[in-house]
Amino acid sequence: MNLNDLLARQFNFPSIPRVVALLLNALDQPEVDLQRVSQLTSTDPALTTGLLRLANDDFFKLCGKINSVSEALALLSLEQVRQMAREAAATASLKAVPGINLQHFWDYSLNTAKVSRSLAGVVRQNQQAAFTAGLIHAFGELVMHLAMPQEIAQLSDHCGPLDLRRASAERATFGFTYANVGAGLARMWRFPQILLEALEYQCAPFEDDVYEPLAGVVHLASWRARAKEAGLTEKGLAVTFPGSVGLALGLDIDMVLQQDPFDWSAYA
Predict the structure, then answer these.
(1) Which domain does 216 fall in, by range?
(2) What pLDDT does residue 13 have?
(3) Domain for residue 256, yes or no?
(4) Residues 130 and 256 in one domain
(5) Mean pLDDT of the chain
């Protein structure tokens, strides 16, 4: 299957059942706490993409400008948000994507989002856009698992979905990666250019005359999260650290790891 054929297919993207239930409960309160709604939505990549798709629709004349959940909530009505949450409830499942432990995958994505936001603050980039890009950076992986379950299963036998080598393995096997899929979807959904480029170039942020700092931020945050998944030792961290990306952003390995909420000493 080529990239265009994959992007032409329709998919139901599952959310985390517990998050959807809490969101519906928050929306059913007599006085809705928008901060609570924003916090809940921002923990779930599927809910986040659903909200951004609504907010970037041509109807609002702001397509390509809304890059965070809080911005989307300021634009949409509560009824629109409720409807989106109800639709998400119909497909919410932790077993809906072959070969993916969704709770684990969402935890990894949220971790990447938090570190992306933190790193963006250090290098003076848009922190809201960085959080969104980090949260949905691997969304294309779900699409590939849904569209190509057998081919992906063969690849995953020797290189798992969160492996540091995953993008290289996908490109060698299929000719495209989860980053290309995610960027293609974001383009179809009229997401802002800054998100498109962060997703598209996240695997090679500063190659071929490309310079998108947010892609570099996501690249470093993803490396940190995948290195944790791999349980790398201190030596392993040093060997795999993408130094050229860090250099372009003025970040060394210690600065990147300092943004990590986890105790790295456990892996040293």
Answers:
(1) 102-267
(2) 81
(3) yes
(4) yes
(5) 89
Is 2 inside any structural domain? no
Distance CA 253, CA 193 (A): 28
Is residue 96 within 8 Å of residue 102, measured between CB atoms?
yes
Based on the fold, state whether residues 149 and 242 are members of the same structural domain.
Answer: yes
Domains held by the chain: number:
2
The distance of Cα 45 from the centroid of its chain, to the nearest Å, equals 6
Kindly state the percentage of the chain with pLDDT values over 90: 70
Per-residue pLDDT of 201-246, as tens digits, reads 999 998 777 788 999 999 999 999 999 999 999 999 999 999 999 9
Task: Say whether both 262 and 184 belong to one domain.
Answer: yes
Question: What is the arithmetic mean of pLDDT over 114-119?
Answer: 95
pTM score, whole prediction: 0.91
pLDDT at residue 59, rounded to an integer: 64
Report the alpha-carbon distance of residue 196 to residue 179 in Å, rounded. 10
How many C-beta neighbours within 10 Å does residue 32 have? 15
